[in-house]
């Protein structure tokens, strides 16, 4: 009977809408890098609930910490203090450099970015915000305005359009000119990569600021490596130069670390540390609590002071159970060597995928850092046009049928995304490489 009910739900049109796959994959259980569906089929999970399960599904240590806290205290709100909150903010602050030491806890990445946007506006007294083409910053009405990809704006246009869209649109400026160049360039990046001389980028960047950016701005939002945009990496010094131009116009610089934080990029704990920059505000979520809903905004004492005391109230933000879990995630990361695994397995996968790229006409680019990897698919290496959705879907489904779950993204939906729980092994990587190679082979036949 239970199985019958599950089958019925499988046909629920709402479920069909949110699933990536032609037929929903009905997940029943998870352990570390593995997921099982209701029929007992095992999948290697290389998407981690969109880069979220950081140390492994139902990691025993984190699960034990959650259970312990659940028996003690579930909820109070932040009008009280309690030890899981104290312990956690100390631990989180220790992972960040000075002057990023003031922490606000939220329940998601969108909430964190909403709060960061408000903070930037209150601190600077300015209103305009700059984001990058291809970026994704959230699903709330405000953060959807920050997100450039129109595919994700659909609900605003349809559902809330007349009320919210103009408000957001007037004040958020997507750096189209510059980023169209990069994205276009990126699609042709198999051979040239992002090796365009940096001074040319700086020239373009200055031009965009001179022609399209208002004279006073509140903030610039940028991910250290673009996540949903398809693991897009910027040219050297791009973020550094952008930060300089933004600050010259009175704005603050916000690093959206929702995907790139917590060791995801391998070589650094925070993605921004790979860019020789110091953000004024850092937002985070996803990997922070291994899949338990949580987010955070970290900023400086100076910015926090203009944000003011008492403004920030959040019923669930900093919930004791969330804090106990997030705290255990940080401990577990140290014990399991999570960041090191991300670095080593990321390098290994990038090497393996690059070999596969050289074999197939339809792989335009393999890129990323740590376990934040993108495989950009093209019609052929000569035209370098995005591989159409139907073809993407065929390879994607085939990979799933052979037991591996991956993600999709990119401005044209042309990039496969590999962001596993950061506990995968070399055997897992080899298994995926063999499966992916086979799926490409099947498609080409
Ligand atoms: N920022 C980035 C970079 C993201 O990838 C996402 C989610 N994909 C968000 C913000 C929004 O996070 P959430 O879905 O937790 O609201």
UniProtKB/TrEMBL annotation:
Keywords: Aminotransferase, Mitochondrion, Pyridoxal phosphate, Transferase, Transit peptide. Its cofactor is pyridoxal 5'-phosphate. GO terms for molecular function: (R)-3-amino-2-methylpropionate-pyruvate transaminase activity; alanine-glyoxylate transaminase activity; beta-alanine:pyruvate transaminase activity; pyridoxal phosphate binding. The keyword Mitochondrion applies. It holds the Pfam family Aminotran_3. It is found in: Mitochondrion. Homotetramer. It catalyses: (R)-3-amino-2-methylpropanoate + pyruvate = 2-methyl-3-oxopropanoate + L-alanine; 2-oxopentanoate + N(omega),N(omega)-dimethyl-L-arginine = 5-(3,3-dimethylguanidino)-2-oxopentanoate + L-2-aminopentanoate; L-ornithine + pyruvate = 5-amino-2-oxopentanoate + L-alanine; oxaloacetate + L-alanine = L-aspartate + pyruvate. One of its GO terms (cellular component) is mitochondrion. Multifunctional aminotransferase with a broad substrate specificity. Catalyzes the conversion of glyoxylate to glycine using alanine as the amino donor. Catalyzes metabolism of not L- but the D-isomer of D-beta-aminoisobutyric acid to generate 2-methyl-3-oxopropanoate and alanine. Catalyzes the transfer of the amino group from beta-alanine to pyruvate to yield L-alanine and 3-oxopropanoate. Can metabolize NG-monomethyl-L-arginine (NMMA), asymmetric NG,NG-dimethyl-L-arginine (ADMA) and symmetric NG,N'G-dimethyl-L-arginine (SDMA). Its EC number is 2.6.1.18, 2.6.1.40, 2.6.1.44. This is Alanine--glyoxylate aminotransferase 2, mitochondrial. CDD domains: OAT_like (cd00610). Belongs to the class-III pyridoxal-phosphate-dependent aminotransferase family. GO terms for biological process: glyoxylate catabolic process; L-alanine catabolic process, by transamination.
